[in-house]
Amino acid sequence: RLIEAGRPIEAANELRLLGADADSDLGQDLFDALVLAEAWDEAVEVRPDPPAWVAFLEASAISEPRLARVLLDEIDRRFGDSLDESQRIAVEAARGLLADA
Asked: Which of 18, 36, 69, 74 has its CA at a distance of 20 to 30 angstroms from the CA of residue 56?
């Protein structure tokens, strides 16, 4: 509910109090909250590989274009050369959507 209320930092803190970490059942929820809070360094500790980042980008490109643009920059910065072909295609598709938005 905190995320829906626009309070992702508080949501991340609550999830941590509940024991959320990279390996827990709440790990994806924690990652989502950290990305929404634009807490990039913390998010990469929870999901250090590109798939979760690219999936979040795909899910947010249309509904949250401002966040998706910032996330796209982070993906380029952190994972640019390490993306596999399908991830590169997804990133470029999102880039195309955002260019038109």
From this structure: 18
